[in-house]
Specification:
Length: about 140
């Protein structure tokens, strides 16, 4: 029950007061991520310099899960190197499949609030949209 409350609070907070939802000034990496099954449509914007995510933001529309997940993701990967960001992404994607350990999920901080999505197959694509889009950008080079 406590976990359920945490999940709702995190989702609500990131939707009402997103930290990272704005147009980035002069991004050098931009990628759209679309989840047609729900109608989620985000554009991830990075200032990516020498293998480090110096700045990041997103714009777009979608359900509460897609928006909160993208916002939390950016909090986690800001200032991180490519390898560190991919490491967190790997944990997140495995968490959503129910395959991450508790210790790994702790590395995701607030992202851990989304672990129950693994029991909601219809929402999986919403939760992973931001992370999949980030992976595509980081694996482009
Ligand atoms: Zn969605």
């Amino acid at each position: 029950m406590a976990e359920r409350t945490f999940y709702n609070e995190v989702l609500t907070d990131h939707n009402l007061h997103p930290d990272n939802k704005y147009q980035l000034k002069d991004p050098n990496k931009v990628k759209e991520g679309v989840n047609p099954s729900c109608g989620d449509d985000i554009v991830l914007q990075l200032k990516y310099v020498d293998g480090v995510i110096e700045e990041a933001s997103f714009v777009g529309e979608g359900c509460a899960i897609s928006q909160a997940s993208a916002d939390i993701m950016i909090n986690l990967v800001l200032g991180k190197k490519k390898e560190e960001a991919l490491h967190l992404s790997d944990i997140f994607l495995r968490m959503i499949k129910g395959e991450a350990t508790d210790e790994e999920i702790e590395e995701l901080e607030e992202g851990g609030a989304l672990q129950d999505i693994s029991h909601m197959p219809a929402r999986v694509k919403c939760a992973v949209l931001g992370w999949r889009t980030l992976n595509e950008i980081l694996n482009e080079e």
